[in-house]
Amino acid sequence: MIAWMRRTPLWVVTVVCAIAAGLLLVGAVVHVTDLLHHGLQAYDWAPEWLNLYWSSLAFLDPLAAALLISGKRRGTDLACVIVATDLAANWYATYGIQSSSLAAQPGLQRLLAFTALVLGTAPFVRRHLAA
User: Fold this and answer.
1) Please, which contacts does 61-70 make with residues 24 or more away whose CB atoms are closer than 8 Å?
2) Nearest CA to 119 among 63, 90, 77, 86?
């Protein structure tokens, strides 16, 4: 491991985990709201597998947030998997299904920034969390 990664201040780890957990909880609220209002087929234009994936985030987002808040490495790992797969799913929906672009999708832009935050800070944060 690179030496300066080990020297990441604990306050930085705390702030990053709090921001990531907060944004994961915002995502969970969106997915739970979609489930309550529209069921498992929240987006009629999207294939069933994509709707099921997004619906699963109603459970996975708060789980990752809880693990991050409790200081577990699994929280970082799960958050990385969630943001990477969610970005891929949304990118597919934007380009492959809706024939849109990144510039026309502010939600995708925000998800891209969140993914960069989570994936970019994970090596620094993970090292300080409990197994």
Assistant:
1) 61/24, 61/25, 61/27, 61/28, 61/31, 62/24, 62/25, 62/28, 64/21, 64/24, 65/20, 65/21, 65/22, 65/24, 65/25, 65/28, 66/21, 68/17, 68/20, 68/21, 68/24, 69/17, 69/18, 69/21
2) 77
**% residues pLDDT > 90 (the chain):** 69
Cα 78 from Cα 63, distance rounded (Å) = 8
3-class DSSP state of 126: helix
Kindly report whether the global pTM for this prediction surpasses the value 0.85. Answer: yes
- Position 13 scores a pLDDT of 87
Q: Grade residue 102 by pLDDT with cuts at 50, 70 and 90.
A: confident
